[in-house]
Specification:
mainly beta
């Protein structure tokens, strides 16, 4: 097979780490939603995540001020709302109202869950040392809520420039058990 060079500016679409998520925050009673695809697992227990949030985003300032958020995982049925939230600034718009999403109370933090999402992870910032240089927040997951009826969620994955891939087929392969 003959391969060709690929633009460095498009690498993120090849190695995208997981489903597109919706980050919710709350500051002084004003909730916000930000669409995000740059995140990664860092540790198993307690579950720890790394999230890149641009210092140009409204969510960046809220997360720095409050130290908490919810990582909400939507399914493909919410794709248009996910993209809409990603293309709209929360500085000017109430995204819950604009996109018809429902706030549900979290149990450990102030930021709300998005009720329509398949899964919600209540998180707190546990390490901010890399925020200034890389916009990288390290989050510990405190509580997880999941829709027990959705056994095989069809999540969306960002491929870049408006292109998404839908996951949903589960395959099982042998693996070591711990």
């Amino acid at each position: 097979m003959k391969k060709k060079l690929f633009p460095l500016s498009k690498v993120y679409g090849l190695i995208e780490p997981g489903p597109v998520v919706m980050v919710t925050t709350d500051h002084k009673g004003r909730a916000n939603i930000m669409t995000m695809s740059w995140h990664m697992m860092i540790d198993f227990e307690p579950p720890t995540l790394g999230c890149i949030i641009s210092n140009q985003n409204y969510t960046f300032d809220i997360l720095k001020a409050t130290g908490e958020c919810v990582i909400n995982i939507p399914t493909v049925e919410l794709a248009e709302k996910v993209v809409g939230c990603g293309n709209t600034s929360g500085r000017k718009v109430d995204k819950f109202e604009t996109f018809g999403l429902t706030q549900a109370p979290a149990s450990c933090i102030t930021a709300p869950l998005i009720d329509e999402c398949y899964t919600n992870l209540e998180c707190k910032v546990v390490d901010g040392k890399m925020v200034a240089q890389y916009n990288l927040f390290i989050l510990e997951v405190l509580k997880v809520w999941i829709d027990p009826l959705n056994k095989d969620p069809r999540t969306i994955h960002h491929r870049g420039r408006g292109a998404f891939m839908v996951a949903g087929e589960t395959i099982k392969l042998p693996s070591k058990k711990k």
